[in-house]
Amino acid sequence: MSSEKLNTSIIALAASALVLAVILAVIHLAVLPRTAVADNVQSSGGDYNMVAARVTTGDEAVWVLDARSRTVGIYQYDNNSQSLELRRTFSLQAVEGR
């Protein structure tokens, strides 16, 4: 392969890499959403059911139902402490008795 063809190949590869890098930067900065959003995600296994849902404050919460003890726990992510915190628990028997 002659040096002229080699130089042309190197320039073509460098130009294509530059174009791909620009496309990736545009997609990352402009197109992709900044936050992840889940809408009514459910998971169940054994004695537990979990549902992610929006609460009245507009935030997301994870509702965990323990079928064996018949209790529900509501967890929310706290940005300040960067942890999942238990917000409230209640018994299904108390709710059913109303």
Structure explained in plain terms:
By secondary structure, this protein is an alpha+beta fold. The protein folds into 2 domains: 1-32; 41-96, no CATH class. The protein contains 2 helices and 5 strands. The protein has a 5-stranded antiparallel beta sheet with strand order 1-2-3-4-5. The radius of gyration is 26 Å and the shape is rod-shaped. The N and C termini lie far apart (85 Å).
Q: What's the main sheet like?
A: 5 strands, antiparallel
The value of Rg in angstroms is: 26 Å
The structural domain count equals: 2
How many strands in all?
A: 5
Element-by-element helix/strand order:
HEEEEEH
What's the tally of helices?
2
Features:
rod-shaped; alpha+beta; 35% helix; 98 residues; 5-stranded antiparallel sheet; 37% strand
List the helices and strands and how they pair.
Blueprint: H1 3-31, E1 41-45, E2 48-54, E3 60-66, E4 71-78, E5 83-91, H2 92-96
Antiparallel strand pairs: 1-2, 2-3, 3-4, 4-5
Short description:
The chain is α+β, with helices and mostly antiparallel strands and 98 residues long. It has two domains: 1-32; 41-96, no CATH class.
